[in-house]
Amino acid sequence: MLIIERMTHPVVTIPADLTVEQALEVMEEREIHHLPILNEDETLAGIVTERDLLRARSGEIVKNVMPPGAITAGEYTTLEEAALMMADHNISSLPVVRSNRLVGIITENDLFRIFLELLGARERGTRLTMLVPEEKGILASVTSEIASMGGNILTLGTFQGEDPTNRMVTVKVSGVSQEKLVAIMEALGMEIVDVRED
Amino acid sequence: MLVRERMSTQPVTIRTDTSITEALRTMREKQVRRLPVLDEEGTLAGIVSEKDLLYASPSPASSLSIYEMHYMLSQLLVTELMSRDVITVTPDTPLEEAALLMVNNTIGGLPVVEGDKLVGIITETDIFKVFLELLGARVEGLRLTLGIPERKGEMARITTAIAQLGGNILALGTFLGDDPTNAVVTVKVEDVDQEALKDAMRDLGFDILDARKI
């Protein structure tokens, strides 16, 4: 999954000489919380968040409240790199640029939706979380067992475990009963952390 | 993954008799963007976000002097502005359900309660970190994105083929495809040759959408 597949474009932008109040008005009208600012030659000058504007003095020009050195990403950056950049720099959006031109924007909210997809928050099935040993081939045995029971894996996600020797796996499955699924996984030696119909 | 596994315990809280000025100061000092509000009994009475407080500050068009403005905010209590219908979760709520509540209600954090008692808070940032874990963003390996048919057993075929090549799966995530007949899988693998892996996936009939070393 790359940024280009999930970014918003075209992007709502503002010129650098708007006042804080005018910029807030644009945000309210367009129901957005981030506004990239363009220079006169259409290159990216920076980006302001609703919070930047709310903390600013009234009447101030946006150019003066915009944080210096906007962090940007390219269209072919992976989504997890984008997420990493946001987390490490404590920012909630990234302007997407191609040779200094703004081509899109990706926000925390876009990534949030992907997270929901990843864990199948909008699909129905048996949701099982288990601790599995950290060893090669373990996911192959888990998924093969589910397939041989006739189950369909809707989503599968892997997380850090309690320590380096194990990891946590959350899987959502349809077409197989909860009891059967639990029994088979226990037989494989997996530690069931949680199971529910979702 | 449940909320209890990733929530912050002992969240910063304020009392119903806290002023707006004080609440804003607490947020800045503790670097949080929302504060659960507790009543005298210590039960959850509401929640305020930094945005609620900033939007409540007098408009620049008002005729108040800076001094008057500060005085007003120091007299105004958070109870005037806090949301009383707080959306909460329990420690046993699945993380994706918490994320769905945040997205659907456009809120950035949820108090975690057990009965009447506040036991933690889970925020967008916490969910974000889980997202990074899920996609193995902090580990290095070969990252492959595949277009696969939405069919029983496909996941088993992918993971078995990787295991047969001696590869170790560092992260695996499934996404929705272009339409209901297909899905997209992103997998991060170590200890396997990139070309051998791509060949194996092609032999299984999968589309390789992207491959890179990260």
Provide a quick synopsis of the model.
The complex is a heterodimer of chains A (198) and B (214). Chain A has 198 residues and is of the alpha+beta class.
Task: Describe the structure in your own words.
- The complex is a heterodimer of chains A (198) and B (214).
- The model of chain A has no long low-confidence stretch (mean pLDDT 91).
- In chain A, a hairpin with a 2-residue loop joins strand 4 and strand 5.
- In chain A, the strands form three sheets. Chain A has a four-stranded antiparallel sheet, covered by helices on one side.
- Chain A has helices at residues 3-6, 20-30, 50-55, 62-65, 79-89, 108-118, 138-148, 178-187, and strands at residues 14-15, 34-38, 44-49, 93-98, 101-107, 126-133, 152-160, 166-174, 191-197.
- Chain A folds into two domains: 3-114, CBS-domain; 120-197, 2-Layer Sandwich (Alpha-Beta Plaits), CATH 3.30.70.260.
- The radius of gyration of chain A is 23 Å and the shape is elongated.
- With 198 residues, chain A is of the alpha+beta class.
- Chain B contains eight helices and ten strands.
- The mean pLDDT of chain B is 89.
- In chain B, helix 2 links the parallel strand 2 and strand 3.
- Helix content of chain B is 35%, strand content 29%.
- Chain B is of the alpha+beta class.
- In chain B, the strands form three sheets. Chain B has a four-stranded antiparallel sheet, with helices on one face. In chain B, strands 1-6-5 form a three-stranded antiparallel sheet.
- Classes of the chains: A alpha+beta (198), B alpha+beta (214).
Write the layout of secondary structure elements.
The complex is a heterodimer of chains A (198) and B (214).
Chain A: H1 3-6, E1 14-15, H2 20-30, E2 34-38, E3 44-49, H3 50-55, H4 62-65, H5 79-89, E4 93-98, E5 101-107, H6 108-118, E6 126-133, H7 138-148, E7 152-160, E8 166-174, H8 178-187, E9 191-197
Parallel strand pairs in A: 1-2
Antiparallel strand pairs in A: 2-3, 4-5, 6-8, 6-9, 7-8
Chain B: H1 3-6, E1 8-9, E2 14-15, H2 20-30, E3 34-38, E4 44-49, H3 50-56, H4 66-75, H5 95-104, E5 109-114, E6 117-123, H6 124-134, E7 142-149, H7 154-164, E8 168-176, E9 182-190, H8 194-203, E10 207-213
